[in-house]
Specification:
Helix content: 40-55%
Distance between the termini: 63 Å
Strand order of the largest sheet: 3-2-1-6-4-7-5
Structural class: alpha/beta
CATH architecture of the largest domain: 3-Layer(aba) Sandwich
Strand content: 5-15%
CATH superfamily of the largest domain: SPOUT methyltransferase, trefoil knot domain
Number of domains: 2
Order of helices and strands: EHEHHEHEEHEHEHHHH
Shape: elongated
């Protein structure tokens, strides 16, 4: 019997086809997950969605909140994994579905953890992946393009298997939410501007460097609060000479 996986949220970012939304919900139901969030669906059709979800997974569709953008959809999460088929020199290190499932299932239940899937046409861009703690790539042979619902099923299957292994849970302090981390980055941007760092490089350059530095660090809420305290003192010192 699988453990309670209600803290693990599957997020579909701008899905184009209602049938894929329904099939993804069915995949969740098959694998013991229950939390689905949908961001700006392009062609919503209740009949097509529910037909693919089947009666068994209709409850997942009915309870799935719809968001206008990805930032809203993930703001309350503590950790986020993004899926992509595109890898290359400038892309970050990726995890396999099995690796990420074991990692996700090692965290205590009170942490909210999301896995986000991009649209069928575009996938996830650098902006969306910038919100993520980890990147996941599903290994394929010569043809790397997977159907959205297939991708969801593969990830959910690995999560179900990992949950059956009964990994030991370690007591951890509360991790910062994505909203809290994004607030820290906005605050950091203020400091960059105040110390005229932008005169040498673009704002995006320094912010991306900062994101890269913090990306693989599990910042607690206390860490973020402390960092923002430093940033407030820096801004105060600059303002008061």
């Amino acid at each position: 019997m699988t453990k309670d996986l209600s803290n693990i949220i599957i997020i579909l970012n701008e899905p184009r086809y209602p049938e894929n939304i329904g099939a993804a919900a069915r995949a969740l139901k098959n694998m013991g997950l229950s939390q689905l969030r949908i961001v700006n669906p392009q062609n919503w059709d209740d009949e097509k969605v529910l037909k693919m979800a089947t009666h068994e997974a209709a409850d997942i569709i009915h309870s799935a909140p719809i968001f206008h953008n990805l930032e809203e959809a993930v703001a309350d999460l503590n950790l986020l994994a993004g899926t992509t088929a595109r890898i290359g020199r400038k892309r970050r290190t990726t995890h396999t579905p099995k690796d990420i499932a074991k990692k996700i299932c090692s965290y205590p239940h009170h942490l909210k953890i999301g896995i986000v899937f991009g649209s069928e046409k575009w996938g996830l861009g650098n902006k969306e992946l910038g919100l993520c703690n980890w990147i996941v790539t599903i290994p394929t042979s010569n043809f790397s393009s997977l159907n959205l619902a297939q991708s969801v099923m593969i990830i959910c299957y690995e999560i179900m298997l990992a949950s059956l292994e009964g990994n030991m849970k370690i007591s951890r302090p509360r991790l910062a939410t994505i909203r809290e981390r994004e607030g820290m980055f906005s605050h950091l941007q203020e400091v960059f501007k105040a110390i005229k760092l932008y005169e040498k490089q673009t704002p995006e350059y320094w912010l991306q460097n900062a994101r890269r530095f913090f990306r693989n660090k599990e910042l607690t809420a206390k860490d973020v609060k402390m960092i923002r305290g430093f940033l407030r003192q820096i801004l105060w010192a600059i303002k008061n000479g």
